[in-house]
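Workshop exercise sheet. Pairs work together: one partner reads the sequence aloud, the other fills in the structure field after running the prediction. Swap roles for the next sheet.
Pair: D.N. / O.F.
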Amino acid sequence: MREQSFGFYSIAFLGIILGRYFLVAGITYWLFYSSVSQAVMNPRRRHRPPSWRVIRHDIQLSAIAAVVFALAAALILSAYREGLTRLYTDPRHYGLWYLGGSYGAVLMLQDTYFYFTHRLFHHPKLFAWLHQGHHRSRYPTPWTSFAFDPPEAVIQALFLVGITFVLPLHFITMIAVLTTMTLWAVLNHLGPDRLPALFPHHWLGRWVIGPAHHSIHHRKYTVHYGLYFTFWDRLLGSQDPQYAKTLSNFLTDQSGRNSE
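Structure field:
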């Protein structure tokens, strides 16, 4: 396989990342925010249209974040070509069981990294510099899923770069992690009012983060910092003690609010 330059990798990954963002966020937005889908899924609830001004802001931030992640991906691939990472291509090298095990390990490590950095971003002295742009969307949409402030994008990309130098990972595992990260981010920023009124909140919902859990974070900045799981929120006291009441108030406010 012909080796390419860092610049080629950067441009190629930028196209892939932006294409993935517009495809996944765009389809999800169409599926859950069109008047037709809302009439079918939750016909009794009033739905104000999201602010296009805020959506444009989210897309602009996402485009900048895409540049950061494209550079990070190009760095990883260039380092792999030089034999500097622990990425590998033969699934038999560590055994098939390791593919699943390493996938789960990366998700848990990323969730831990995200929780503590995210909570740090909310420190009053850092928030305006690192995270305020993302929270411009108080009522998030799928377009908010990748809307990182530039410094935050760098910090989150560092995890993906660093893990390839520390943990042996198959390329399939990395693709699975990136796919999970994309889909989970879109789901987490899907407002809970866009789901059917009887959308199930079963035992699994206590341990994984979904749109209801993360929407509360966009309303109350002092709770719910996790990415995939609620473990750290529960352990370190950042789980909203009035979860049900806050969610009810959120839904009431969101359905009755005027467009921003």
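Discussion prompt: Residues 6-192+204-256 form one domain. What would you look at next?
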